[in-house]
């Protein structure tokens, strides 16, 4: 694990949640993309999760405060429980969620750049995510002016006054201009399609409704929903890939619905710069494309008992039901449910509810730059 930091001469007004939010970035390459994000990211702490060869040196531009963890660090910190963290897949990002000490997480892929709104102004994606998280959600009744808490909007006529306080927002799911987040078959059919539609809207995903959660432009309240944001077993040694964020999204949404928490989608946009290879993607996705026809009905009908009053209890109960119902679909799901339990055990070890004495155990090796 490597620590890095250096001073920067430009210091704007204090950014929102400066000391309460970590930016988590999974990568296998130098992080030159951070230069474009410098005006928006430079005052926040970064957690970089290096995938692949741990001996490879990842260059981080000067002026950023960061920690960098590679596979050796993950193995050292988690020991035998490191088996729950994917290898050679961006699902490894969830280790950053676990090791963070902050209340909020924003995660972004290294092929995502600053987008511009229709007026040509650069979009501060992080600031919009924070605004989404700090305002309530309305999952129990749909507002036809979308987010009623945004400037210039409100609850429309007929909206129940008893529901206008809303509920805490656990997750803010952002979108992408340029390269859409398509599956491999759609990529193959529409290889030149680009998303140029900027929709100036934020919606609460209604209770009982699932959605495809993309991990490349995503923020959440770690203290409220963090243990549910497990990106599963993907990549090296696994029969499936590119379903890490989908799996986390389905589990998270079921738990949010049970606990009365909200999920928003829409703004902010980022510029997704690079289309991944559809043939490689198809190889990773093809089992998931079949399996999801059974996974979705499971998540649409699963219920959690009222005794599940914490995210951890909900997640462990969900793992039992996954094993019972989906284990027969493929043995992979038996392995996945074991990893779900291991994930919660590792989360609780690194994040005891009241115990500051673990800080030394969590502190990574390495030297400050």
TrEMBL record:
Give the GO molecular function terms. Answer: UDP-arabinopyranose mutase activity
Question: What high-level taxonomic lineage is stated for the organism?
Answer: Eukaryota, Viridiplantae, Streptophyta, Embryophyta, Tracheophyta
Q: Which family does it belong to?
A: Belongs to the RGP family.
Per the entry, what this protein does is: Probable UDP-L-arabinose mutase involved in the biosynthesis of cell wall non-cellulosic polysaccharides.
Give a GO cellular-component term: cytosol
Where found in the cell?
A: Golgi apparatus
Q: Where is this site: Required for activity?
A: 157, 164
EC top class, as a word: isomerase
Q: Which reaction does it catalyse?
A: UDP-beta-L-arabinofuranose = UDP-beta-L-arabinopyranose
What is one process in the GO biological process aspect for this record? cell wall organization
Highest rank taxon of the organism: Eukaryota
Enzyme Commission numbers on file? 5.4.99.30
Keyword Isomerase recorded: yes
Report keywords, A-Z: Cell wall biogenesis/degradation, Glycoprotein, Golgi apparatus, Isomerase
Positions bearing carbohydrate: 157
Put simply, this protein is called UDP-arabinopyranose mutase
Record InterPro entries: Nucleotide-diphossugar_trans, RGP, RGP_fam
